[in-house]
Design brief:
heterodimer; A: Aldehyde Oxidoreductase, domain 3; 19 helices; B: alpha+beta; Enolase-like, domain 1; 4-stranded antiparallel beta sheet; 33% helix
Chain lengths: 800, 290
């Protein structure tokens, strides 16, 4: 019997291609395409008075210049609001090219097409746009004040206001023995994938067919959006996401203006056209996330039991709100984490500002939520003089209490109900892994040497695998190779490997004989996309269901051909064979041939297969009523609601007493994403997430000035951590609590690593320096000033 | 992020190079390692009409170690000098500084002389040149001259080279055997420009284990690299129990940091003092730069 691959850390099938430079990204596919450059607004808020292209017209190799006025009527409409919500009462979305007003630096105004990007930029440089300046709204508090408005026609900057409540939070807090209130802020950051956005369109005028390549997390949705806006039949448009160099959420947004403009230009100009975003453009026109101002009020008892919480926050969604309220809704629900909190009120306002729009970035509202809840737990522990793990332990939902129904509504509009988990074990494992109980001694010893050490921990629960569905298609070729397709795309996560592991197990074939294609709408046109830690849960289960259909059919065919009871057959080594008699069996490839009644004997295998064909019954059709030709199966997986992964992180940091620089000494992760398909890949996801979390906690921020200019729109000043800033060793323990919601018992793993970072670093730094850390990220300069203001222990160098 | 049109010329000799610069009539720019220039071009922050690419010019790629100095040619990469054993033995401060210059891939392309004439106040090598009292030799079609370090750096990103001049070499004078050096800096990330840094030279009486003199040049906290003499504060002190309070106070008065998105001016001033104290201790005790 072939070794079961599910659960094995097999090497990634895609790595040879990606690590040897053989990956195919959008910009690799299109050497002859004409190129697009976009004239973008240099101002955060202005009316466009005039656009003068005269000086650009004699730039060599210029092909075309388009403004909003040149667009067909359907394209002159604002882009869609993807996810409406009853509380979203004042939605505004952008135009593909600005229609008279710009609302953030970087907003697209003019499209230039030229034979090269060089020429396109030369022409773009010479286009003169006259502006009438409007006062910019920058910063959450300025937006909340409402004295300046992003969208003139609105009364204020509030797009949405939502309150959810379970129990009676006010009464619970008022009756509690202890209460506290505080504010906990998180700044803006962004996904910043290494590959920027890119889109390439091929228009076949003879066929009336548009093929689109986009660096996207949702190719089928891009296809639908483009077909709708260009008023084409879906079947005349295909969209392929080839290799994608990272997404982290920003590429789930669709359609981007360029995803509409480029295919339209291809159809109008009758030539291949592409847009490859440069890094500066990415900073000022691809979406951001994270910025929230959060106020909390909590009531608790002498043991640290949380009795009631009132959570009010302001969410900065930038100039437009195309993705609806997903991020703040996630914050308001996932805030509850692994804790049994029965009286909870949450209220948020989602605010317009004259900055780049906000849509989900890995973690999607959870890092802010976890920062709020875990800092709250630390504050309760400090107030009561208790160990921080003790206060958490007393509030944890217990393993026998699942499913745990909170009574809230989650991002997918479904009940916010946890399916399974074992939080107390997770906490015990984390304490062991990081040496929690011994840390006080270690900290004291270090302090005797003048060193400042601190430890922090944070827990999270993550809703993963949101619906509505994903599909899988599995087909056995007459060669014996197995072709697998699913519609969502890959940004390097390892989909080709884990999906192949699932299929190889079901069909008893070698991993190398399974080929997985993702992100091609012509192979699977019904699909949702790669986000919300959903690919393994959704497509993994869909593919498993489809593979089982193929298995059933192969079993039936083999049973008939061998005249053996199906119960006596097994799948192994690419054969369906008799249990206990491995020489009696049929290869899958022969069954693939047998499955098609039209059997021209193209080769010897096909000729050999004919001997097993059942004698044709002249009174029955060759393909039965409930049958189809071919050894293939398609199925869809659609869960009732999300499955909830969980985990806890701890970090030990050292703060330089003189420079306030923070060094990471130890980082520990306990992670529970249900059954692991491939532990190596899950570890990689955690490593990457922790690295990105280090960035979010200690390095990255979007530094807007009061004029709405982003002052660090480059990798020189936007401080994405290098390998040198990421901890060398990350200790990881896996806990596997299967999900009862899906056949494979799995939960999502993609975002987990980044979620607790702000919380865990704030806690550790606070523990090291002894002053509250209530806003993240934090730089050495900021920490230095906090310590000065708090009169914390002075520098050992005798200077202030 | 594509540059505007420019003409690329690839001279084979210094004469051809300076002729091309002269003919560019003030609109030429020398391309050596390109690690600062090419991003400026791509972001359209610079638009020279002619790029004089000196990478193919013969005779500019030498490192010469003499009894008096280490002389570095115009196309010598940071990495070449960093890995040059004789240069390191003659002047350890070169490697002490070079390991802080960006990352290996950038050091593989970027040139020592290019970094000097780019005159970035956050760069390490200009500070080293000033600390050592070195100079740069420059050539133009009609002239040849030597520019002392203190005259080379005029303002942030502005050197005293004329647009028609090519810097052909930099000379880093050697120090007395009793003088030790150290470089300390703190950057936000490994390889970034420092929020504050310093190169120091400490003259020691090794028999008595005392300091006889000390100088420092700061990185990233002054408009141009400036020598600060700390002899008055430190001379006579024991190498292993330096009291740096007076030296740090003097230095903090001598520098002029500014706020930016990464750090406040006050923090940089504080940090410069911390780096100075640590670098002085490194050099006084012979400890390798951490």
């Amino acid at each position: 019997m072939t070794t079961r691959l599910f659960g094995q850390g097999v090497p990634r099938k895609e790595d040879r291609r990606l690590l040897t430079g053989a990956g195919r990204f959008v910009d690799d596919l299109s050497h002859d395409a004409w190129e697009v450059a976009i004239v973008r607004s240099p101002h955060a808020h202005a009316r466009i008075v005039d656009i003068d292209v005269t000086e650009a017209l004699d730039v060599p190799d210029l092909v075309a210049i388009h403004t909003w006025e040149d667009l067909p009527e359907r394209m002159q409409q604002p882009l869609p609001l993807l996810i409406p919500h009853p509380a979203l009462t004042a939605p505004r979305t952008q135009f593909v090219l600005a229609n008279g007003e710009v609302n953030h630096v970087g907003e697209a105004i003019v499209m230039v097409v030229a034979r090269t990007r060089y020429a396109a930029e030369d022409a773009a440089d010479r286009i003169r746009v006259d502006y009438e300046f409007l006062e910019p709204v920058v910063g959450i508090e300025r937006a909340a004040a409402g004295d300046r408005r992003v969208h003139d026609e609105l009364d204020d900057n509030v797009a949405a206001h939502l309150v959810q409540e379970i129990g009676d939070a006010r009464a619970a807090i008022d009756a509690a023995p202890h209460t506290m209130s505080f504010r906990l802020d998180v700044e803006r950051s962004a996904s910043t994938p290494l590959e920027t956005r890119g889109v390439y369109a091929r228009w076949d005028a003879d066929e009336g067919h548009l093929r689109l390549y986009s660096s996207t997390q949702a190719p089928t949705s891009v296809r639908a959006a483009v077909a709708t806006i260009l008023e084409m039949d879906f079947q005349d448009v295909e969209c392929i996401a080839p290799d994608v160099g990272g997404g982290f959420g920003v590429k789930i947004m669709h359609p981007w203006p360029e995803e509409v403009l480029v295919p339209w230009a291809a159809t109008v100009l009758g030539h291949d056209v592409k847009f490859t975003e440069d890094r500066r453009e990415h900073f000022i026109s691809a979406n951001h996330e994270r910025g929230q101002v959060q106020h909390l009020e909590v009531g608790f008892d002498d043991d640290g039991r949380i009795l009631g919480i009132d959570f009010t926050f302001l969410h900065d969604h930038g100039a437009y709100i195309p993705y609806g309220l997903i991020v703040p809704i996630i914050t308001s629900t996932q805030f509850l984490g692994p804790y049994r909190i029965s009286d909870y009120r949450v209220e948020f306002r989602s605010l317009y500002t004259n900055t780049v729009p906000v849509t989900p970035y890995r973690g999607a509202g959870r890092p802010q939520a976890v920062f709020a809840m875990e800092r709250l737990m630390d504050k309760v522990a400090a107030e009561l003089g208790k160990d921080r793990t003790q206060v958490r332990a007393i509030n944890l939902i217990q393993p026998d209490e699942f499913p745990w129904e909170f009574g809230l509504t989650f991002q997918d509009g479904r009940a916010y109900t946890y399916d399974s988990g074992d939080y107390p074990t997770s906490l015990d494992m984390l304490k062991d892994l990081v040496g929690w109980d011994d840390f006080a001694r270690r900290q004291a010893e270090a302090r005797d040497d003048g060193r400042l050490l601190g430890i922090g921990l944070a827990a999270y629960v993550e809703g993963t695998g949101v619906g509505p569905y994903e599909g899988g298609h599995v087909l056995v070729e007459p060669t014996g190779r197995v072709q697998v397709a699913t519609g969502l795309s890959s940004q390097g996560q390892g989909h080709e490997t884990v999906f192949a592991q699932i299929v190889a197990d079901v069909l008893g074939v070698d991993l190398d004989d399974v080929e997985v294609v993702v992100g091609d709408s012509s192979r699977m046109q019904y699909a949702v996309g790669t986000f919300a830690s959903r690919a393994a849960v959704m497509s993994g289960n869909a593919i498993a269901l489809a593979a089982n259909k193929v298995r059933e059919k192969a079993l039936r065919l083999a049973s008939e051909a061998l005249e053996v009871d199906p119960a006596d057959l097994e799948f192994a080594d690419g054969q369906v064979r008799v249990v206990g008699s491995p020489d009696t069996g049929l290869p899958l490839k022969m069954l693939a041939t047998l499955s098609n009644p039209l059997r021209y004997a193209f080769d010897e295998d096909a000729a050999a297969a004919t001997q097993f064909a059942a004698p044709a019954d002249p009174d029955r059709p060759p393909v039965g009523d409930d049958d189809e030709p071919g050894l293939e199966g398609t199925d869809f997986y659609s869960p009732v609601r999300s499955t909830f992964a969980s985990g806890m992180h701890a970090v030990v940091v050292e703060v330089d007493p003189d420079t306030s620089a923070v060094e990471i000494l130890d980082y520990a992760v306990v992670h529970d994403c249900g059954n692991l398909i491939n532990p190596t890949i899950v570890r990689g996801q955690v490593h990457g997430g922790v690295g990105q979390g280090v960035g979010g906690a200690l390095y990255e921020r979007m530094a807007y000035d009061e004029h709405g200019q982003l002052q660090n729109a480059s990798f020189m000043d936007f401080l994405m951590p290098y390998m040198t800033e990421v901890p060398d060793g990350i200790a990881i323990d896996h806990l596997e609590t299967p999900s009862p919601l899906n056949p494979l018992g799995i939960k999502g793993a993609g975002e987990a690593g980044v979620i607790p970072s702000a919380a865990v670093f704030a806690a550790a730094i606070e523990d090291a320096v002894g002053i509250p850390i209530d806003a993240m990220p934090i730089s050495p300069s900021q920490l230095h000033h906090l310590r000065l203001a708090a009169d914390a222990p002075a520098s050992t160098n005798g200077q202030p | 992020m594509k540059p505007p049109p420019f003409r690329h010329v690839a001279p084979r000799t210094v004469d051809e190079a300076v002729t091309a610069l002269a003919e560019a009539d003030g609109h030429g720019k020398v391309l050596a390692g390109g690690q600062s220039l090419v991003p400026l071009l791509n972001m359209r922050l610079a638009a020279p009409s002619v790029l004089v690419d000196v990478n193919g010019v013969t005779g500019l790629d030498g490192i010469e170690v003499t009894d008096d100095a280490v002389v570095v040619g115009a196309t010598v990469r940071h990495r070449d000098l960093e890995r040059h054993a004789a240069a390191d033995a003659a002047l350890p401060v070169l490697r002490q500084a070079l390991v802080h210059v960006a990352h290996p891939v950038i050091r593989n392309r970027g040139t020592v002389v290019g970094s000097l004439v780019h005159a970035d106040p956050a760069a390490e090598l200009p500070a080293v040149l000033v600390l050592l009292g070195g100079h740069v030799d420059v050539v133009s079609r009609d002239d040849r001259r030597s520019i002392d370090a203190e005259a080379l750096f005029v303002a942030p990103l502005e050197s005293s080279l004329r647009p028609d001049e090519l810097a052909v070499s930099a000379t880093f004078p050697r120090l007395a055997a009793t003088t030790a050096t150290a470089v300390r800096e703190l950057a936000r990330r490994h390889g970034d420009y420092a929020m504050a840094g310093v190169c120091v030279a400490v003259d020691r009486d090794d028999e008595r284990a005392t300091v006889t003199g000390a100088r420092a040049v700061f990185i990233g906290v002054t408009d141009t690299p400036t020598l600060v003499d700390l002899g008055e504060d430190l001379a006579g002190q024991g190498c292993h129990d330096l009291d740096t309070v007076a030296a740090v106070a003097r230095a903090r008065d001598a520098i002029d940091p500014t706020d930016d998105i990464h750090a406040t001016a006050d923090y940089r001033r504080h940090l410069a003092g911390v780096m100075l104290a640590r670098a002085l201790a490194d050099a006084a005790t012979g400890r390798e730069d951490a």
